[in-house]
Amino acid sequence: MERLDKVLSNLGYGSRKEIKAMVKKGIVQVDGKIVKDNGMQLEPEKVKILVNGEEVVYRKNIYLMMNKPAGVVSATVDNYDETVIDLLYPEHQVFDPFPVGRLDKDTVGLLLITNDGELNHKLISPKWHVDKVYYAEIDKSVDEKDVKAFEAGVLLDDGYKCMSAKLEILEATEDGSKVYVTVQEGKYHQVKRMFEAQGKKVVYLRRIRFGKLDLDESLQEGEYRELTEEELGMLIQG
Ligand code: URA
């Protein structure tokens, strides 16, 4: 059971005070009756709420795709830096969303943001083998030895042996390389540390795919949008 004013406020109908005023005006109905108490308890999935005669579409969860810009951290709060949640509009912030996994402060690209804890758990657990694809630029020439090492599972500086990862070379010269990397886990600085283990440095990193979802190229860095029903279905089914 939840309070009516909280439900409506979370759906973007205004502050609790504003909802109280709307109730007082008599424009809020629940199951055909005009509401008198803005704090009435109800089960939002089970009742029909009307505001100004229009049905309220209830939803508990939100699912957003952001093209994360550099310079913001993948956290909900931070003492020093702007967070990806700070970039959201208040109508999305009221859902208390959080990022699914983390991208480093200087990494850009596809970041999912939701308040669905269950889906989050499934997506970040290596057990579910969700592919994360990155476009990366490297300071040196990447070669077949690196491809083999990634496939076998790179040993990181802390002794952790990574799961097998796919490395595709797009361009390789002594001055630098362009590659795609596909990993199924999300260890701290994983892609950067995998290259460091090969004596190379990632100079640019952008996530372009998460599971079956591609980064929407029409999103500028810092922009985001809700996932479509179809995209959400693709994520849930894995
Ligand atoms: N690997 C990294 O090193 N950094 C990221 O942000 C994501 C994957």
Automatic annotation (TrEMBL):
Ranges for domain RNA-binding S4: 2-62
GO terms for biological process, alphabetical: enzyme-directed rRNA pseudouridine synthesis
Family under the similarity heading: Belongs to the pseudouridine synthase RsuA family.
NCBIfam families documented for this protein: pseudouridine synthase (TIGR00093)
Keywords noted in UniProt: Isomerase, RNA-binding
InterPro entries in the record: PsdUridine_s_RsuA/RluB/E/F_cat, PsdUridine_synth_cat_dom_sf, PsdUridine_synth_RsuA/RluA, PsdUridine_synth_RsuA/RluB/E/F, PsdUridine_synth_RsuA/RluB_CS, RsuA_PseudoU_synthase, S4_RNA-bd, S4_RNA-bd_sf
Organism: Clostridium polyendosporum
Name used for this protein in its record: Pseudouridine synthase
EC numbers for this chain: 5.4.99.-
Alphabetical list of Gene3D superfamilies matching this protein: Alpha-L RNA-binding motif, Pseudouridine synthase I, catalytic domain, N-terminal subdomain, RNA-binding S4 domain
